[in-house]
Structure formats: C-alpha cells, structure tokens
Amino acid sequence: MTSAADISDLGCIGECLGLERLDLSYNDITKLHKLAGLSALQNLNLSANRFSSLDGLQSLENLHSLNIAGNLIGSVDSLQCLTGLQNLRELRLKDDSIKLSNPACLHPSYTADIIEMFPSLVLLDGQRVRGQGSELFYICQEMDKELKSFGEVKDIDIPLVKVQHQLTDCWKLPSVVTNTTHNKAEEQLKDLLASCQRLSQKAADKLKEFEKQASQQQN
C-alpha cells in the first residue's frame, strides 16, 4: 500500500517481481514503464495520478483488476495496448462516487467501445457488463438512452399562421396551434413513459429470475 505518498518516480519497483497487489493511487505518476516487469500482479490501483499513456502495462499477463480512474487517458484507443491481457476482468476508468474520471469517458460511445475492445471484461466502472446480472446494466442503459433522447427533442414546429389582434390588446396565437403543440408534446411523453414502463417491467422480471435461481441454489 503506497497510495497518497506524492510518488512521481517508481524507482526500482520493477525488481519486486512477486507483487500480486499494488496500490499507487493518489500520487504524481506520469510514466508506467517501470511496472512492466511485475508479471505476477493481479490487482493494480493507479487511480488519481497524471499519466496519459498505459505503456508498460501490456506485459502484466496475470492482471485481473485495473483501476486507472482520475488520470489523463484521452481516448479509448489508448487502451488498445491492453487487449492482450487475457485475464483482465475488472477495469475502471471512472468512479462517479469520488468524482474521478478520464477525458476518454466523455465520448458518447465510450462504454460500448470498451466492451467491444475487451470481450473478456466482466466489470466496467463498477458495473457488471457480462455474466449474470449484466442484463440489468443494459436495461438501465436503454432507459437512459430513452430519457436522453426525449431531453434532446427540439422545440416542436409551430405552423405559420396569421396572428390575430384580440380585443384585449394582446397578441395571441389561435387555439388550434396551441392544441397541436400540446398534442405533439403529450404524444412524445406518452411514448417515453411507455418505453420506460416496458424496460422497468423487463428489469423486474430479471430480478425475479435471479431471486428464483438464488433460492434454488440455496435449496
């Protein structure tokens, strides 16, 4: 455990060949190449440092869990060098609970790209993306997309009409336009709610399925 020690140079750490767990979080590390010889490493925490390249980690063939949240990884392509790590099951580039992330996480397709790049990955950023329980992750993603798509809907087009001057000395759009706008918005909201309801039911069914399986295993 060497976290929060203001380490910037990893020195001769490469000589500690038997290390299986290493926590170097909250330091000032910018280069990782000196970790290349630690082939026995299984769990590595490098969160909250200042590196932008993962060069040096590609030789950690036994690595199972890697935390690099809170660094300067600019794109998903920067992780390409890790695709040969067949034992990697847990990867974290962001941790919303403590507000750590990487610039790469801002890309709209970040999650999908990582999942495609690492076919053996089970946990990404603390969320199960494969195996039992991953269905809920994808259901929540679908629901999130539905909500975002509704939020991105542009102003509803209002047909051009002649604005009439009322006796009350104010300008007012004809009621037919207001009704049309209202109806379109109402239809969009109904579609969104129906979609969320379907996804919610799907999630509930999956939870019941998991509970049933757990009960059967206990018996």
UniProtKB/TrEMBL annotation:
Coiled-coil regions, chain positions: 182-213
InterPro entries to which the protein is assigned, alphabetical: Leu-rich_rpt, LRR_dom_sf
Entry keywords, A to Z: Coiled coil, Leucine-rich repeat, Repeat
GO biological process: outer dynein arm assembly
Pfam families, per database record: LRR_9
GO cellular component labels: cytoplasm
PROSITE patterns, A to Z: LRR
Highest taxon of source: Eukaryota
GO molecular function, one term: alpha-tubulin binding
Protein name: Leucine-rich repeat-containing protein 61
Provenance organism: Pomacea canaliculata
